Amino acid sequence: MTTITRFKLPDVGEGLTEAEVLEWRVAVGEEVEVNQIVCEIETAKSAVELPSPVRGTVEEIHVAEGETVDVGTVILSVRSSRRSGVATRPDSEAVREQANPVVEADPGAAGHAPMLVGSGPIEPIARTRFLRPRTGGTARTAVRSAGVPGEAGLEPAEAVVEPEIRIPIRGVRKAMVSAMTYSAFTAPHASEWIDVDMTETMALTRSLRDAPGWEDVRISPMAVVARALVTAIGRNPEINSRWDGDAQEIVRYRHVNLGVAAATPRGLVVPNVKGAESLSFRELITALGELIATARAGRVRPAQMEGGTVTLTNIGALGMDGGTPILNPGEAAILAFGAVRPTPWVVGDRVEIREVARLTLAFDHRLVDGELGARVLTDVAAVLRSPVSHLLHH
Fold this sequence. Notes:
CATH 2.40.50.100; five-stranded mixed sheet; 24 strands; Biotin_lipoyl
């Protein structure tokens, strides 16, 4: 007796409703083992590899590469014999006595092993379209073939290349477009900025890199800024909030889930460190380092993207001094950290060359006014000017 198992697209987490099939790792007629990776999909949050729930032979691939389908859609059918040890749900036992029963495989059900593993980055491929020429409109470059000897009167073929490339937006980048558009046109953004003497912060990071017991910790100025931001939020908890438009209420978060904006080949992602206010300086540095490495490798889990309360973006890593970032939806503030540069700076009654950076705070003006924003920036700057007393004893 054989059984055909229909493998449905699972909800890989956090209520996502659809995914794009990026690549099939198997072909029709190919033998597969339990937990063998059969395809890679991309959701609005990350790329995920899906394993086979059964052992058997690929009967049919129902969804083509590049196609986006809803959760619950059948994407693969696998034919298994009784000896293959097909893993089915208890409610499928009744149909196993038929000649060729069909089992609906739910990857999240008992007996299945989802083993969801994020994938690495994939570069977008631009496709050039070859179309028949249109009359009028934009000019195109026509490539005329030489024709075939002896076939006089036949028109040689033309390959017409359009002077533009269209790149489909899917997955993470599509989600980013939606989120940024929603935020920009629903939350009234306002920004404030301050230039900060980072000399002591830079000295601290250099000294800790060589300090005993810190050899395995990758410390950077951004980590100090992150700690300073969390400290400032502790002093000004009102900024750790969101606006509930339906209820016309301010919702204040009890914990600081610190998001870090990370650019990846798939688009911008903002994973977050949960409960950052409860972490020591060293623990926060470690958590940030792991999160950024995971994001750049394309292995962010959906749970790491959910529940952010405030965001930090390091535009200085790109050589930028300042900017006006767009809020992550569901948050009231985002802090942009600019490049640290040697700058003439007044110290007492003299001018010195100091290491200076610009901090820009963008906020939702419905629940954060200029006075609150200024307090937060001032508190962040105070920590960065004198980090030792603020950080090492936390």
